[in-house]
Design goal:
By secondary structure, the chain is mainly alpha-helical. The chain has one domain. It has six helices and no strands. Helix 2 packs antiparallel against helix 3 and helix 3 packs antiparallel against helix 5. The two termini are 19 Å apart.
Length: 163
Amino acid sequence: MEVACVWERYKLKEIPCHVHTMPGLLKVLETFVACVIFVFISNTSLYMDQPALERCMAVYSIRFILAVVAMLMDREEWANRLPISFPVFHLGLTLLSILLQFTALVLWLLYQLDEKYGGQPQQSSDVNCIDRTTNGMWAWEQRLAVAVLTAANLLTYTADLGY
């Protein structure tokens, strides 16, 4: 939001900086949402000992790294070193991101919120529930927050691809 406000207020559209472009703003948003997801998945009991959910963790980490690489590669001296043009590189990263994010969303929803796969479809009604994490948030709320943020990031990647 801060970048968008600065962009609008100071009319920085003429300055050749990736962050001041719509794809740049989308990359910043994608990276920010990834950081928020990392906060919610700091409770390792949500995904440990479940290979499908550990794959989701790998996807979140890989996506974060790829978004940072994409932002760094836009620098003039680095983008020229690519064997392909930067827009093609960016398109490939975005397509890969959509694929990874979609699989993470499906796996997270299945294994966290579907009883068939050991998930918990709704919040426990027990007030003395022992499913509380150390920071005071219910584990189910964390599962749901990660699912919603993963879906939001998938939409952001799709908007990035469309743009």
